[in-house]
Specification:
- One of its GO terms (cellular component) is cytoplasm.
- It is found in: Cytoplasm.
- GO terms for molecular function: UDP-N-acetylglucosamine 1-carboxyvinyltransferase activity.
- This is UDP-N-acetylglucosamine 1-carboxyvinyltransferase.
- The protein is of the alpha+beta class.
- The protein folds into two domains: 210 residues, Alpha-beta prism (UDP-n-acetylglucosamine1-carboxyvinyl-transferase, Chain); 206 residues, Alpha-beta prism (UDP-n-acetylglucosamine1-carboxyvinyl-transferase, Chain), CATH 3.65.10.10.
- The chain has 13 helices and 23 strands.
- The strands form six sheets. A four-stranded mixed sheet has the order 21-22-1-23.
- α7 runs parallel beside α11.
- The longest helix has 14 residues.
- The protein is globular, with a radius of gyration of 21 Å.
- The N and C termini lie close together (10 Å).
- The structure holds uridine-diphosphate-2(N-acetylglucosaminyl) butyric acid.
- The site of uridine-diphosphate-2(N-acetylglucosaminyl) butyric acid has 27 residues, from α1, α4, α5, α9 and α11.
Length: 422
């Protein structure tokens, strides 16, 4: 089993470069299925979700190269291969294969996705959208079967402003006949990024980034070149790390506008955040104050920041509360932080953390991607050694994390431990 071993207490200093956005990448790659010539995507993060998607593109017959963050996907030889099992189960975002394959082939078989367990994560809004476009959707032995004679544009009102449903419906609708209108669409920057690639491929999409997206279907989409936006969640994780352990850290390759909610919350806690055009500098933080926070859909504070933010709250003077309105059960990290001496508890969909608490090194387990990131941050400020287990979660989303943190002065290494040392 691979683990991270972190010796806490080092002060960190220097520049850290954010990679391309995971949650864009996992939709941009399937979008290539819709083209009739090669699509190139630059700036992709080197994370396991991207490697898994490369394999999936190959499984359905695509020709793919991936070097130095640039993936070129030739979709011309792809076929509507059923994907009931295997790689699709490794990541939740494999649900984008449904929209993209339905858009191109008018049929798809995709195993129900895996990914982080954050409490119930239904895909009913995706399915409602596909059905509105004319697809017949059934769940047979844990795989979703989608079939349509033709896809016809429709008006779709999302009951929840879901990122995944908004993108998935866009993928299916760009080659449908006529006009699709998605109402109560999610507004996350990743949706704009995917719409930008699709538009460069010849799609006709208006309103991405607002709550109403209008799509005029086109017959064909062609290849295009695209550069993925920076990962705002990775950036926010490193901003929080800078507030916890930094003696001056510049987070490079960011779009500060995408980070407004986290910047505002950090400032409220007493962190100095100096924004530049494409970077954010955080000097050493002297005193942290307790705050209350609530996760919301974009442009509110992202649920993906909630877990790292909890670590910062353990260091703030007084009692902080964070309510997760997006995923009510995304609190598995709290028990692990308590093992490290955090004073924290969960009440319903709210975590209450009292600080400042000197964290102690311990053996902890990452229950999901952002919980893992939170435990790494906690390890960096804990007294003694922390062992983080199940780090495959972290590696789904943080490119080169060991190299990046080591360059700032952190004492973190990956080790393979045998079950005997459990
Ligand atoms: N929801 C439904 N029905 C649906 C879809 C969603 O009820 O059909 C609910 C969910 O249960 C949740 C809320 O709507 O309560 C929002 O879910 P959303 O669909 O927006 O989430 P997602 O698309 O599955 C993406 C990110 C997540 C991130 C959420 C929220 C990807 C691949 N994943 O998930 O990222 O937490 O949006 O912003 O884009 C992460 O990066 O660690 C991560 C989990």
């Amino acid at each position: 089993m691979e683990v991270y071993k972190i010796r806490g207490g080092n002060r960190l200093k220097g520049n850290i470069k954010v990679s391309g956005a995971k949650n864009s990448a996992v939709a941009l790659i399937p979008a290539a299925i819709l083209a009739n010539s090669p699509v190139s995507i630059d700036g992709l993060p080197e994370i396991s979700d991207v490697f898994t998607l490369k394999l999936l593109m190959e499984e359905i017959g695509g020709q793919v190269t991936f070097e130095n963050g640039k993936m070129t996907i030739d979709p011309t030889t792809m076929e509507a291969m059923p994907l009931p099992n295997g790689n699709v189960k490794k990541m939740r975002a494999s649900y984008y294969l449904m929209g993209a394959m339905l858009g191109r082939f008018k049929r798809a078989v995709v195993g129900l996705p895996g990914g982080c367990f954050l409490g119930p994560r239904p895909i009913d809004q995706h399915i409602k959208g596909f059905e509105a476009l004319g697809a017949k959707v059934t769940n047979e032995h844990g795989a979703i079967y989608l079939r349509a004679d033709e896809l016809i544009g429709a008006k779709i009102y999302l009951d929840v402003a879901s990122v995944g449903a908004t993108i998935n419906i866009m993928l299916a609708a760009v080659r449908a006949k006529g006009r699709t209108v998605i109402e109560n669409a999610a507004k996350e920057p990743e949706i704009i990024d995917v719409a930008t690639l699709l538009s460069n491929m010849g799609a006709n999409i208006k309103g991405a980034g607002t709550s109403v997206i209008r799509i005029e279907g086109v017959e064909e989409l062609h290849g295009a070149q695209h550069t993925v936006i920076p990962d705002r969640i990775e950036a926010a994780t490193y901003m929080i790390m800078a507030a916890l352990a930094g003696d001056g850290i510049r987070v490079d390759n960011v779009i500060p506008l995408h980070l407004e909610a986290v910047t505002a919350k950090l400032r409220e806690m007493g962190v100095k955040v100096e924004e530049d055009e494409e970077s954010i500098f955080i000097p050493k933080t002297e005193n942290l104050h307790a705050v209350d926070a609530k996760t919301l859909v974009y442009p509110g504070l992202a649920t993906d920041i909630q877990q790292p933010l909890c670590v910062l709250m353990t260091q703030a003077e007084g009692s902080s509360k964070v309510t997760d309105t997006v995923y009510s059960a995304r609190f598995k990290h709290i028990d692990e932080l308590r093992r490290m001496n955090a004073v924290a508890r969960v009440e319903g969909n709210t975590a209450i953390l009292t600080g400042p608490a000197q964290l102690h090194g311990s053996t902890v387990t990452a229950s999901d991607l952002r919980a893992g990131a939170a435990l790494v941050l906690a390890g960096l400020i804990a007294e003694g050694e922390t062992e983080v287990r199940d780090i495959y979660h972290v590696e789904r989303g943080y490119s080169d994390i060991i190299e990046k943190l080591t360059a700032l002065g952190a004492d973190i290494r990956k080790e393979v431990i045998t079950p005997a040392s459990n």
